[in-house]
Specification:
The chain has 319 residues and is of the alpha/beta class. It has helices at residues 2-48, 69-80, 92-106, 123-130, 160-186, 197-200, 207-227, 259-267, 280-289, 294-318; strands spanning 60-64, 84-89, 110-114, 135-140, 189-194, 232-237, 275-276. The longest helix is centred in the N-terminal third of the chain and has 47 residues, at 2-48. GO terms for molecular function: oxidoreductase activity.
């Protein structure tokens, strides 16, 4: 009997050794891929001039949700690279102010289109403005998120679910539908879809937002396979936190860049990476997140939810 037990234990030890080797190999592979992506995107591409010359694809860039944060930074950086810019958002005063800034600073033309992307009846008007333009780049940036992490059944805001899906998913699909055919005809063009790390690493308590950004990721990957042979580049950037009203982050640091820093970095990866976080420290965060157990994410979101609810109670008491 003792010999049988020894044989059993020996066999078990061999099995665990194999499992351990496989796990170690998998983690080593993930790290190697992450290091290669990092070097390729943030060191080699700039040094070797591998990133795309957007100006060769046309005269105009189109940016949705452009009056704040990442969208505004894309509008500024496209103008800095010599492109005229079509600005789409729902507040005319902010659009006009940004248009004036771009025209004065970068000596480019702008076109302002007022558009509420929670609506579905806006695209005929947008099409009428875009039809005559030689569009090089479309940046699908417009989007919205939760006020704070919350359970799906407790999202009690009127029209919240419909508005989020319409803005975060349908807007990107409809804008791409408007712009892509002419890019196919001329066999060049760039479509940049702004996703989120929440769409790559599933985030409970932001379930609908996370799912909407997963749509952007999958939509982009499929389009890239469909149209790369047509001379068209589709890129999805999936950043972590940046300084913006949407993220509620107010100060930049190594892990939380400004929108300008993120977009400058991300634009240098166009033509190099089809899917990227856009920023060097976000690539490191993505590598770490790929091996972090999911319950840590949920626990951190539960803590953020508790803080937000306490702040609401305290604000109500002060009023």
């Amino acid at each position: 009997m003792s010999e049988i037990i020894k044989q059993y234990l020996g066999a078990s030890a061999d099995i665990f050794s194999v499992i351990g080797a496989l796990v170690t190999g998998y983690l080593a592979f993930k790290v190697a891929v992450g290091v290669f992506r990092f070097l390729n995107a943030y060191l080699l591409s700039g040094a070797l001039g591998l990133s795309a010359n957007l100006r060769k694809a046309g005269l105009w860039g189109v940016v949705t949700g452009c009056t704040d944060g990442i969208g505004k930074a894309y509008a500024e950086q496209l103008a800095a690279r010599g492109l005229n810019v079509v600005l789409l958002s729902r507040t005319l005063s902010k659009l006009t102010e940004l248009a004036t800034e771009l025209e004065e600073q970068y000596k480019v033309k702008t076109l302002v289109i007022v558009a509420d992307f929670t609506k579905l009846d806006i695209y005929d008007d947008i099409k009428s403005h875009l039809v005559s333009l030689d569009i090089a780049v479309l940046v699908n940036n417009v989007g919205t998120s939760y006020d704070h992490p919350e359970y799906f059944a407790q999202l009690n805001q009127p029209n919240f679910v419909q508005d989020l899906v319409t803005m975060n998913c349908i807007a990107a699909a409809k804008m791409t539908e408007l712009v892509l055919p002419k890019m196919v005809d001329k066999k060049c063009g760039y479509i940049i879809n702004v996703g989120s790390s929440s769409g790559t690493f599933h985030v409970p308590l932001l379930s609908l937002y996370s799912a909407s950004k997963a749509f952007i990721d999958v939509f982009s990957r499929c389009l890239q396979q469909e149209y790369s042979s047509h001379g068209i580049t589709i890129q999805c950037i999936s950043p972590f936190f940046v300084v913006s009203k949407l993220s509620k982050m107010r100060k930049s640091n190594l892990l939380v860049p400004s929108p300008t820093a993120l977009v400058k970095s991300a634009l240098n990866t166009v033509g190099v990476l089809a899917n990227t976080t856009g920023y060097w420290s976000h690539e490191i965060q993505a590598l770490v997140m790929s091996v972090v157990p999911s319950y840590f994410v949920k626990n951190s979101l539960l803590a953020a939810r508790a803080r937000a609810l306490r702040n609401k109670v305290n604000s109500a008491k002060m009023q």
